Each structure stands twice: as structure tokens, then as C-alpha cells.
Amino acid sequence: MTTDTCFSPYRTDALGRLAKFLPYAGAQYARKRNYDYGAGLHNSVSTLSPYIRHRILTEHEVLTSTLQRHSVSAAEKFIQEVFWRTYWKGWLELRPEVWTQYQLGLRHQIDAIHTQSGLRENWTRACSGDTGIDCFDAWAKELCATGYLHNHARMWFASIWIFTLQLPWELGADFFMRHLLDGDPASNTLSWRWVGGVQTPGKTYLARPDNIATYTNGRFQRVSGLASTAAPRHAQPPAQPRNLPRLPDIDPTLKTGFLLHAEDLSPGFVLDQCPSLAAVAMIRADENLTPLHLSERVLAFKDQALVEAANRYDLGKLEHLETPAQIVDWANKTDLEQIVTAYAPVGPIARVQKHLRKSDAVRVVQVRRDYDSRAWPHATHGFFRFKNKIPDLLNAL
What we know:
Elements: H1 11-21, H2 27-32, H3 49-53, H4 59-69, H5 76-94, H6 97-115, H7 117-128, H8 134-146, H9 151-164, H10 169-179, H11 185-195, H12 209-215, E1 256-260, H13 268-271, E2 279-283, H14 296-312, E3 319-321, H15 324-333, E4 338-342, H16 348-359, E5 363-367, H17 370-375, H18 383-387, H19 390-396
Parallel strand pairs: 1-2, 1-4, 2-3, 4-5
């Protein structure tokens, strides 16, 4: 199998990439998934994450397609990888304050960049791939150029950022968020917390030269100067997990508008419940992902994916909205009695939806996927307890 990192935001291309990968989702994936062969050569993994992240492809589709080709035992490692993303989303959904804590910490570190010249210089060098650590610099440049990194490279990169370069983990998570096509609040933030020993207190991930040499197939043979210890970073412990919020039902008798957003670009499960739509629009709230600026590559991917989804579902030309006030004005202008939208997990779109619900200006109905409602409540502890639920979750498909 060959692949590339030129990601088109179109569902047809996502389906083509899935079909290309499926023959290799079994034993070959389990054997080679940890190998990072470099930009344009990520042929040991699926490279589906930008599509699953925005649900151009859904987890349900990917899992059922895999199980049509392989047994559960043969594709166990790939199935678990899909469920890791589900687990991270569920874990953060049950503890939304962790996202708020990260954002506050990030703003504090960005303030420090403006006042501490040494930190600013080291951060700038790390972001531009100018540290003198060959593998790290190559990954930084690959990320900026393609919007993608192999998962193993992400772990090495985060470890070097935190423990060798001694940079705040929040700034590293933000660097990834600004450049990754698949960057989302749950997987990105919690993975950085895990490497730094914050997610699982006391458990850190240390990048080792021999491991890097082995799993980059010898591309980086002489990596020197890496930290030999990884003291865990500290953060406020999360609260006890909450219950998932109860959601109101769609009232088919009300004049209804639909809001499309980039958290779920396969909204057929929502549209099927709406007998008619009086108006449609799309939400964009990207500025709340980072206090800095998302890369042009990420912005273009999101924008084109939104337009493609609107065309795919024959929604016509959609008005672009960004704030709760703009959405309320749109609802008033079109005399809407109800706004329907796909449920957005913790992040900028969820924040907009929350403000809308609190405003009481118009009835807002979020529709959550059955897949999420079944899986997320099990993300109460670590992944390995969640993993015990995977057979039941697969049966429910």
C-alpha cells in the first residue's frame, strides 16, 4: 500500500483512502503501525484521521467496513486505534473543565512568551524546526507543510518538546492544534497531557534515541542530546466525571432551521429527522481553538469540507455565522421557531451551542449520535477499562 499526505476535504477521496487501506487493516497494520517512514510515505497507517475528526467519515462507517473485511481479532489493533479517539472524546465530554483549564494555561504561557525573551526564542525555534535535533526539526517542518504527523512521531515530538526543550506542554498542544488537520480538543489536548504525566499522574512518555532509530526505519540513527529522564508536569486534577447532558427532541411542528458545523460533516442522521427546513446556515468558531492563528492549510480544509458537505446534502448556499448573536439574528430574520444541529463535543462549537441554549432566544435542539451516547459514558477511567466495553460497542453497530 502507498499513501500520501495531500488531503482533499472531499468524501469521495476519504472513501477512496478507506478502500485502499482496508486490505491492510489486519495483521499488517498490527505489525507496522508504529513505523514512521516520513512525509508522503505513511503507508503503515490509515491516514484517515482528518476525515474521522470532522466526521467526513464516521467511526461507525470505518469500523463496519473493517469488520466486513477482517475478524475482530485480526483487526484488533486498528479497531482499538479508532476507539482511542472515541475514548478521548468521551473522557473530555465527561470532564469539560479540563478544556477550560488548558485554555487558561495556554493564555498564561502565551503571555509569558511576550515577557520572557528566552522562552520566546526557544518556542520560535521549536515551531520553525530550528532546534538542531534532526528528527524533531524534520517533524516540525513536516507538520507545517502537510498538516499531518504519524502518531508515533507525535509522541516523540511531544516528549522532546516537554522534557528536552523544557517548553510548556500547553504551547506544544497549541502548535499541533494550529497545524494538524485532525487536531481536536479531546485527542490533542489529552494526548499532550498524557505525554507530560498530567493525564495519568506520574506516568510520562520519554522519547529514546534507540526507539526513534528503530521505528523511523533508520532515518534518524544518531539522535543525541535528548533528555534521559521525564519528570511529570503538574496540573489541577479533574473533577469527577459528569453524566452526559439530556437532550430535547425535535418538534416537527415548529418552523425549523439547520446549522451545519465542522464537528460533524455527515449530518444525515439529523436531517432525516427534519421533515422540512425553512433555513440553513453553517457555524464557524475557529478562533476559539487557539489565541493565535490556525494555519491556512487547516482553515482551507475546514472551509472546503463545509462547502462540500453542504453540496453533498443539497443544502444550497449556506450563510456563514460565527457568534451566538449572529445566529440569533439569522433565526429572527428567517422567523425560526427551532434550530436543529448535530451535537458538538467539548470545544468551540459546543461553546456556541451552550450560549445559544442559555439565551432562550430560540429553541435549540442538538442531536447526538447513538454511537457517542453508547460509548462516551464508559470513558470514566483509563482506556484499558474502556477497552473492555469494545466488544459490546461493536455488537451495537
